Structures are given as C-alpha cells and as structure tokens.
Amino acid sequence: MSNHTFSIKSALAYSYSLLILALVSQHVFADDLYQLPLSKQQIEPCQREALLLHSGMVEQQRVFNQKKHFQVRYEIQANDGFEWVVLCDLATGKIIGEQKLLGDGKQP
C-alpha cells in the first residue's frame, strides 16, 4: 500500500511541476503571443503614411492578400472634403497607389 501511496504522491508532484512550468512559460513567452504576423506588422506605419498624404479620418480599412503579398486599402475622408483611396504594401509600409474619388469637396 505504501508503494501505491508513493506513486500517487509522485504523480501529484509531477503534475504540479508541469503546471508551474506551463504558467512560467506563458509569462516568459507572452510577448510573442501578441505580435502581429510578419505580413501585417507594417499596418500602423501604412496608416500613418496614408494620413500624411491626405489628412482626415480613415472611414474604412481592408487588408487584401494578393498571392501571399498583403496590402491594405484605406478609404479616407480628407479634411479638404474629398474622399481618397490609398493602397499600401504591408511588407514595406510604403504607399503604392492613391486615387481621389468623385465628389464635391470644399471649394478653396
């Protein structure tokens, strides 16, 4: 009976050790869990670049996957009254296209 008791204690100690290891591992590697995938790490620089071109309010943001090459499309209501579509390459964070949508806009 003492062998049986010893094996239960061993199993409990082993389980406790695994639990501690799992908790510590989560804490140590927590930063990796919250990082964006490499294909989307440039999303904030892309938005900054788009708003530098056309200051205003981002009304819509869409991410597109073109053959494993990610791009983000912003629709911006600019402060001048016009609406712009700006396309940014998520691999580089660089603007690759822009187009003014038809509209009245404010007269200067």
Give the SSE layout:
Elements: H1 2-28, H2 30-33, H3 43-53, E1 56-65, E2 70-78, E3 83-89, E4 94-100
Antiparallel strand pairs: 1-2, 2-3, 3-4
- What is Rg? 26 Å
Task: List the quaternary state of the chains.
Answer: single chain
Query: Structural class per helix/strand content?
Result: alpha+beta
Which strand order does the major sheet show? 1-2-3-4
How many discrete structural domains? Answer: 2
**From N to C, what is the helix and strand string?**
HHHEEEE
Strand content: 25-35%
User: Mean pLDDT, as a whole number?
Assistant: 78
Q: Specify the helix fraction band.
A: 25-40%
Described by strand count, sense and barrel closure, the largest sheet is: 4 strands, antiparallel
What does this structure look like?
- 39% of the residues lie in helices and 31% in strands.
- It is an alpha+beta fold.
- It folds into two domains: 2-33; 38-100, Nuclear Transport Factor 2, Chain: A (Roll), CATH 3.10.450.
- A four-stranded antiparallel sheet has the order 1-2-3-4, with helices on one face.
- β1 (56-65) and β2 (70-78) form a beta hairpin.
Give the tags:
single chain, 108 residues, alpha+beta, Nuclear Transport Factor 2, Chain: A, 2 domains, four-stranded antiparallel β-sheet, 3 helices, 39% helix
Concise structural overview:
The protein is built from 3 helices and 4 strands; from the N terminus they run H-H-H-E-E-E-E. The protein is an alpha+beta fold and 108 residues long.
